[in-house]
Amino acid sequence: MNADPVSAHDARPSSLQEEFSLLWPGLALAGLVAITARTASSWMLPTVDVPALVLALVIGLAIGQIGREPVVAPGLAICAKTLLKVAVVLLGLRVALQDIAQLGLATLVGLVVMMAMTVAAAVVAARLLSQSSLFGTVAGVATAVCGASAALATASVLPSYKGKEADVLFVILTVNILSTIAMVVYPLLGASLGFGDTQMGVMLGASIHDVAQVIGSAYAVSEQTGNTAVVVKLARVSLLLPVLVIVGYVFGRGNVSGKAPFPWFVLGFLVLCVANTLLSSSASLLPYYLPAHGFLRLAGDWLMLTAIAAIAIRSPVSELLRVPLKSSAIVVLATGVCLGAATLLASLLASLA
Fold it and tell me: Which of 13, 18, 42, 202 lies 20 to 30 Å (CA to CA) from residue 78?
């Protein structure tokens, strides 16, 4: 993959203005791709459910030649790294611990086991198919936690290696395709198994990747299914924090070439998660908190979209095409394990009720 861009001048910018002049072309390019993708997803394709993240990826790859221009390289690097970490921090606003506590210990333990099985299956499959355990980790965490956001967050705590960005984009694209299929197929599967509203909500929330896709699929079944699915899904999102810490620790100990720094930004995720929990339960502060909460969540969505656009622009299509097709089998297997474990969890919880 492309090395991190280095300024043509030995000296660092001497002022904030010079720093901005160095970064703004890349920032503007990634932002323009993000705006285009969001616009196309919301307005130009009203009858086709194409996630903006996928459109940003495709557009970014299509204009990748521009990304190799020195003038945009520094700004794109900032988007792909710093803005991405800020977006991961803002994911903490999606989690309120009191909602997750309502699931009960059995559900939470079941989710942890299910997610561990999914990640383990992806890593083992990667090794059996002669692929990097790093790729298996990205694929497994993306499937087990929350799709594209988890893939990007996991990649940010892994050591650099050749083809890393292409691997991440491949996982994001494959996971989105499978998740779109899941929105239609999984409710039919639950109905065929005779699942009630709560069981269906547990299965959908524990197996579908993105929060928006969970909402679209589960509320189409019933309001109770939707409410249950969203809480289960947010519980998975909250587990991104310990997953990132574990991944950063394991790969930072030298088990692979290179070192991964401790993901300090996950502490920001935890701080916002706790703040969201406290403020959302305060009747006196809630009217003031809700506007800020909505704004910051929207900002997080845009930052994540911009980061994906920048990563795609920086990644030549040739690199993505070099990702072996058998890599898709790893993501498919992880998705199958996640679905099977989620279905079993829903059945077991019903029997314990």
Answer: 42
Q: What does the DSSP 8-state code read for residue 163? A: T
Asked if 210 contacts 146 with a C-beta cutoff of 8 angstroms, the reply is yes
Nearest to 113 by CA among 346, 350, 345: 345
> What total number of domains does the chain contain?
1
CA atoms within 13 A on the CB side of 222: 13
In a domain, 227, yes or no: yes
Residue 63 phi, psi (nearest 5) = -110, 25
The rounded distance, in Å, linking the Cα atoms of 131 and 133 is 6
The pTM of this model reads 0.75
Question: Which pLDDT value is given to residue 6?
Answer: 43
What confidence tens digit (pLDDT) does each residue in 119-167 have?
Answer: 999 999 999 998 889 999 999 999 999 888 889 889 888 888 888 888 8
Mean pLDDT of the chain: 83
Question: What is the extent of the structural domain holding 91?
Answer: 16-352
Alpha helix ranges (H) inside the chain = 16-39, 52-62, 73-78, 84-90, 97-101, 105-128, 133-144, 148-157, 164-192, 197-207, 211-218, 223-238, 240-252, 265-280, 286-314, 317-321, 326-352
